[in-house]
Amino acid sequence: MIDDYRAKGLRKKLVRTLQEKGIKDEAVLKAILDIPRHFFFDDIFLDHAYEDKAFPIGNEQTISQPYTVAVQSSLLSIKPGDKVLEIGTGSGYQAAILSKLGAEVYSVEVIKPLFMKARMLLTDMRLHAKMFLGDGSKGLPNLAPFDKIIVTAGGPKVPELLIDQLKTGGILVIPVGDKQVQRMLRIIKKSDKELITEDHGTFRFVPLTGGDGWR
Ligand code: SAM
Asked: Which helix (H) or strand (E) holds 87?
């Protein structure tokens, strides 16, 4: 894995594109500048790594579009030391960005080959994330509560169990809709009884599977 001047230049260009599209969070932009996205691609697809596009990673799954990663990461307002649960490790890129932002990352993936590959890559990159294989649609109850939860696959509803696993003041960012198109929701848990739900626009994700996803 080599991170050369060409790749660094392409990342600078990608960051400018994200700024033009309205991403303002400096810490998120810096993390995108610092993490070599091409490490998460097979060599033959290197040229695609710095386009602002989602891309297939095998097993009918995708690495999210950089803009989507930037929006979800910004909505989480990560503070160093935040305990963050990601559902849908995929390539591991979003987990790497969260780790770079100083979060203590817990990431769950349901497809074994993707889990294995992402775990090995993050270890090689010396990025710290605790990786789990299994259905993440019900969260990780034994390791809860979390400061923040991010879901990177589209579900039919907001899983109650994820709200339960948030600390008071915690934030859940999740795309919810049908199998084709979803709305990006940010849910802030003000107290056990009060949730604030914001809508941050239309996105397209692969489906969240599992018990609280699309069965
Ligand atoms: N965050 C990823 C990245 O940075 O590459 C992109 C995620 S990809 C759009 C969605 C991922 O969610 C897929 O890898 C899929 O297998 C996974 N997934 C879907 N349903 C899941 C579930 N119930 N539990 C865990 N992972 C799930």
From this structure: strand 83-87
Pairwise CA distance, residues 54 & 97, whole Å:
16
Greater pLDDT, 32 or 42: 32
Token readout for 101 is 């932002």
User: Is 53-203 a CATH 3.40.50.720 domain?
Assistant: no
In the numeric block, the tokens 């305990």 are attached to 83
The Å distance, Cα 193 to ligand 1 centre, comes to 29
For the chain, the domains span 53-203
Query: Are the CB atoms for 28 and 74 separated by under 8 Å?
Result: yes
Index of the ligand 1 atom closest to the CA of residue 40: 5
Instruction: Describe the chain by its helix, strand, coil percentages, rounded to 5.
Output: 35, 30, 35
Report the DSSP pairing between strands 195-203 and 182-189.
antiparallel
Q: Give the position of tokens 């990025």.
A: 127
Q: Alpha-carbon torsion 134, 130, 60, 162, what sign?
A: positive
| Residue 118 Cα: closest atom of ligand 1 | 5
Across residues 34-60, what is the average pLDDT? 92
- What DSSP character marks residue 142? G
Tell me, yes or no, if 64 is annotated catalytic: yes
Can you give the pTM of this predicted structure?
0.97
C-alpha dihedral over 98, 176, 45, 121, to 10 degrees? 30
- Percent over 70 (pLDDT), the chain: 100
